[in-house]
Amino acid sequence: MRLRLSVFALLAGASVAATAGSxxxxxxxxxxxxxxxxxxxxxxxxxxxxxxxxxxNWAVNVGLLSTGESYNAGSRLEGGLGGKLYAVSVGxxxxxxxxxxxxxxxxxxxxxxxxxxxxxxxxxxxxTMDGESFREVGVRADFELVKNSTLYWGYREVRAxxxxxxxxxxxxxxFVGIQVKF
Length: 182
Prior knowledge:
Blueprint: H1 2-17, E1 21-27, E2 31-40, E3 43-52, E4 57-72, E5 75-90, E6 93-107, E7 113-122, E8 127-129, E9 131-146, E10 149-162, E11 167-181
Antiparallel strand pairs: 1-2, 1-11, 2-3, 3-4, 4-5, 5-6, 6-7, 6-8, 7-9, 9-10, 10-11
């Protein structure tokens, strides 16, 4: 409980200090994820936390992505490439990993409906403690209610390959969320 309160207090404090960015919160039956993104030019700094109540697993991350958007054939595409540093607790194991990857969102015809995805992977060379490798992947469908406010549904899998050759899910399943840009 304290971890959740600490994470949300951190994110709330960061959102007040930011001049441009977004707050993103999503929920499933057993998990909650919150992220704060802060944009500076073509870079985006992310701070996020995921908690799964059912399994008592959690993951926190800090990332830096090179981001941009383009308009082509009447559609809007947003994307970014970079890395995230993860600290993870899954079962009785702890994992520290540096994942490289990216994210994208594509809005059809510059309208309110879009799709997106993300993937970050950390092989054994950049995964330590009880981990052998780590990955976070997900897809989502977005509906931009009003400019800068998005409602979305998605599916994610956050998984660690542990030293004992078992795979443990930090979280896996569908979720619903909101993202507010400011």
